């Protein structure tokens, strides 16, 4: 206790930090996600938190606010670290990883990657400056089988179900359908139309129609067809007939519709509503070329996407003379987790992983017995805190209660007496054998 | 395949990155470490990767090369992010965490923290710019029971044993013994003597003796006693008698010797050689006040410490008007892992977590049967890759072999036939029931 000035530290905006009881839930989520990815045979990859700036900028992602590093005591003549930036996603580092280790990997290469990423943006609801992404991607030489277009959303669906997230929909579309449709319509620059229709969320049908007509110069018939396509939804392959019914034809459109039908057919066993073909989804990034995904909470349609991804061509093209297309999806762990926490929907539990607290009795022999019993229970797989000093039983019980430890163990106070366990919820106290006791 | 220039990316020095088969081992290590910490009831905490610079500098750790952040497209007038730095250890963020969340935590607060840390130093053997630390600390109001001085090295010992590390010793000492001894000797500035004796490793007995005599002005008798104390080693409490035998007395020395004896007594069940009282160990950091630890590989004494820690006073003192002493230990995961990898001592296994590869047969019905069987096996807890397309069996076997997947599953090709599993090591192929099959 000194008189020096103390300054209570404050949270840094956009850099989330959790209390132990919340972190315990986040750990459970991470375990579920990892197990979900591994159940399908995806291996773990981690990359450094930094990449050279030219790697981060290779796809011209200048819209991302990258954090660069600088040493505090940097020599003016040595600015080598200034060419390093914290990664802003896990796809760009993964493409670099593939190129760098190409000869040591087995293709199709299937990996998951769960890491923090950083963006130097202004923090707001659902947007953080440091957050955890959970990515799953498949990259192959020349061609990624369509198989994965259905397998990836199935994996993500399984994981989100196991996490018991509130109602969501994974919206799926295919960029070939959009591009092929616009080609069939006789549009000159289909990509520009895609980028414009992608703004439906923000500026609505009238805003998009105006841009298509005024800025891109589409005819009224073309604008009408674009708007009509974007309005189509469907939970099964009948949506393909709806698109065909619009009367537009092109080879690319047919290819895209076949792919979309394959995805919908393959996932027809998923619960109704969890997967939806939504012909308005485009995903802003220009690098997507086929199937695209975008997951949303049903009850918070304005909240950012909770998972997303798609098929892309050759992200590693600047590093290696191989054609390496891929497909990937990403779960926005922090975004989902923080939302549920804010909504009070996260069932937070104890502040300790312990199964039980071992009371530490007075007396050298009794204390040794307690320590030995704790050791035995640990070897049997239980998580056991040994209380740190002999103390009033009430104080030890209160410690366990405050931490949410469900059981307290009383070692025998004299020879011939039995061990006893108290259930802190029911208050019941019964004899127990450390060789066989299981947490009920 | 384009003619554009391609630049194969290179590793960034000091930022380690592993191939999947190595990462799988690292994951296993992380699982073992986490389980070891949780087995004793320590809860997980993670903090942001960054702290305000004044937090990082609070302990005057100017010798650490801190990385600060800067936004690539930073507004000259907004340099708010420049006041953030990547943490260089996990103790400083933990002290800040304790102060910030003081009212929401249960004390003694026992946490573990496994995260990456960053140091802007030149990379060399055992020193990285980005690496993973595994910390375990206890912080309490006013007083941390001596109990933890023995519990922490026991936990670390258990974990390092389970990881089957090559022979190591955890050296233990007590700063009170050193300081009390020097006080008893009549030395004016015991801390300066501690800092000097700490250089024994680097400059040897003669170098240290010269400094003690020339720079600090100790008498020959004092220098002799300091050197003699530093030469003492012992695996049990008899080392305390050796210190007492040197004939120096002080209250602080007695207190320190009692604490050291407690630690040695409490851990007397550990295998001989794994714990050693070493009276030369001081740990450079000024904030240690009692028990200190430093683990080393037996066969590589010159390699950096593989685990370390100690007791400290009130690291959170600049944030909160409470006396919050603590004790902690840290496993240098990356340092240990990279050394074993370099020495060829890391038994790396498969490049995939999969238990088995499910062959995908030709034919819609057969393929559906394969997918359904894969789903059933996954629900039973197995990790199953479904091959991504119908292909020659030989090719599917080769894929599994190259990834180190131990079993291949052949679904029946026609009704009434049986499922079969091939063990890729023995080559044996037998009938199998997907409802009951277990990996042998």
Q: Reading side by side through the largest sheet of chain A, how are the strands ordered?
A: 1-5-6-12-11-10-7-9-8
Q: What is the averaged pLDDT score of chain A?
A: 92
Largest chain-chain contact?
A-B, 94 and 94 residues
Give me the CATH superfamily of the largest domain in chain A.
Bira Bifunctional Protein, Domain 2
Description:
The structure is a homodimer of 440-residue chains. Chain A has 440 residues and is of the alpha+beta class. Chain A folds into two domains: 20-342, Bira Bifunctional Protein, Domain 2 (BirA Bifunctional Protein, domain 2), CATH 3.30.930; 356-431, Anticodon-binding domain (Rossmann fold). Chain A is built from 13 helices and 17 strands. A nine-stranded mixed β-sheet of chain A has the order 1-5-6-12-11-10-7-9-8. In chain A, strands 14-13-15-16-17 form a five-stranded mixed β-sheet, sandwiched between helices. In chain A, α5 (175-184) crosses α6. The radius of gyration of chain A is 28 Å and the shape is elongated. The relative contact order of chain A is 0.12. The model of chain A has no long low-confidence stretch (mean pLDDT 92). β3 of chain A pairs antiparallel with β3 of chain B.
């Amino acid at each position: 206790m000194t008189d020096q000035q103390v300054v209570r530290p404050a949270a840094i905006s956009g850099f989330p930090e959790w209390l132990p009881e919340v972190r315990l839930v986040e750990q459970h989520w991470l375990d579920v996600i990892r197990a979900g990815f591994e159940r399908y045979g995806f291996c773990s990859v981690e990359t450094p938190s930094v990449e050279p700036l030219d790697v981060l900028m290779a796809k011209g992602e200048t819209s991302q606010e990258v954090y660069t590093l600088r040493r505090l005591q940097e020599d003016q003549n040595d600015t080598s670290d200034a060419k390093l930036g914290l990664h802003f996603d896990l796809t760009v580092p993964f493409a670099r990883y593939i190129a760098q280790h190409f000869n040591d990997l087995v293709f199709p290469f299937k990996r998951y990657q769960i890491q923090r990423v950083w963006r130097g943006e202004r923090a707001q609801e659902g947007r953080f400056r440091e957050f955890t992404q959970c990515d799953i991607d498949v990259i192959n030489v020349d061609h990624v089988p369509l198989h994965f277009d259905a397998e990836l959303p199935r994996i993500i669906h399984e994981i989100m179900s196991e996490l018991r997230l509130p109602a969501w929909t994974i919206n799926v579309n295919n960029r070939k359908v959009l591009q092929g449709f616009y080609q069939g319509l006789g549009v000159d620059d289909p990509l520009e139309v895609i980028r414009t229709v992608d703004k439906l969320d923000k500026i609505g049908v009238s805003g998009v129609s105006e841009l298509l007509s005024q800025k891109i110069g589409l005819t009224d018939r073309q604008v009408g067809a674009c708007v009509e396509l974007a309005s189509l939804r469907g939970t099964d392959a009948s949506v393909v007939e709806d698109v065909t019914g619009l009367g537009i034809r092109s080879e690319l459109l047919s290819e895209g519709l076949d792919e979309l039908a394959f995805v919908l057919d393959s996932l027809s066993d998923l619960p109704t509503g969890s997967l939806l073909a939504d012909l308005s989804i485009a995903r802003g990034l220009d690098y997507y070329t086929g199937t695209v995904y975008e997951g949303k909470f049903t009850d918070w349609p304005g909240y950012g996407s909770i998972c997303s991804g798609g098929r892309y061509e050759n992200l590693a093209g600047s590093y290696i003379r191989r054609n390496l297309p891929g497909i990937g999806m990403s779960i926005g762990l922090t975004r989902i987790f923080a939302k549920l926490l804010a909504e009070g929907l996260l069932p937070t539990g104890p502040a300790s992983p312990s199964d039980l607290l071992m009371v530490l009795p007075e007396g050298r022999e009794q204390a040794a017995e307690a320590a030995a019993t704790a050791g035995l229970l640990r070897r049997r797989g239980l998580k056991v805190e040994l209380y740190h000093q002999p103390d009033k039983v009430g104080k030890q019980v209160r410690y366990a209660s405050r931490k949410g430890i469900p059981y307290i163990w009383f070692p025998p106070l004299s020879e011939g007496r039995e061990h006893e366990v108290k259930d802190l919820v029911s208050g019941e106290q019964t004899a127990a054998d450390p060789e066989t006791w299981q947490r009920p």
